[in-house]
């Protein structure tokens, strides 16, 4: 199911997606005053990076983004927040798709 979502990200046509979290939900967690919420944000983004890397390593998915060497969790969180704020028209889509699109825009593969 995640692989299908990842393939759909590249050709996203603006359709609503059924998801547990939307980009808007994730942004709210990331910008929360609660340390727990902010940690959920970081954990969610790390999970998307790890799942994507697993599918890429297994040959199921082409690279959608290329994180620079040394990029850490704080940078990851800042990129996700920046990109979600920069594209408010996409906040209704799934948080997973939002993270992948944010990382694709910030860290494209050459």
Structure description:
By secondary structure, the chain is mainly alpha-helical. The chain is built from 5 helices and no strands. The protein starts with a helix and ends with a helix.
List keywords for this structure.
110 residues, mainly alpha, 5 helices
Average pLDDT: 86
Measured distance between first and last alpha carbons:
27 Å
Biggest sheet descriptor? none
Shape call: globular
**Percent of residues in helices:** 55-70%
Q: What portion of residues belong to β-strands?
A: under 5%
Structural class: mainly alpha
* Backbone CA Rg: 13 Å
Number of discrete helical segments: 5
SSE string, helices as H and strands as E: HHHHH
Detail the poorly predicted runs: 1-14
Number of strands: 0
């Amino acid at each position: 199911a995640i692989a299908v979502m990842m393939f759909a990200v590249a050709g996203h046509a603006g359709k609503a997606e059924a998801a547990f979290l939307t980009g808007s939900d994730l942004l709210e967690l990331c910008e929360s005053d609660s340390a727990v919420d902010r940690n959920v944000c970081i954990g969610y983004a790390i999970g998307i990076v790890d799942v994507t890397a697993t599918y890429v390593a297994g040959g199921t998915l082409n690279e959608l983004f290329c994180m620079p060497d040394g990029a850490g969790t704080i940078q990851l969180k800042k990129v996700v927040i920046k990109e979600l704020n920069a594209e408010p028209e996409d906040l209704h889509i799934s948080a997973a798709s939002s993270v992948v699109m944010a990382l694709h825009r910030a860290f494209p593969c050459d």
